Amino acid sequence: MIFDERSLNSMVKHYNHFTKNNLTYNTMLKTVLTDNR
């Protein structure tokens, strides 16, 4: 699947709304970024 910037932003906004900026998600994201460094 190919995503353009607009669709990615849309998905991110939708997901953030869905999780209500869930702290668990933010922590997981930081962990993933750290592991991939």
TrEMBL record:
It comes from the Bacteria. This is Uncharacterized protein.
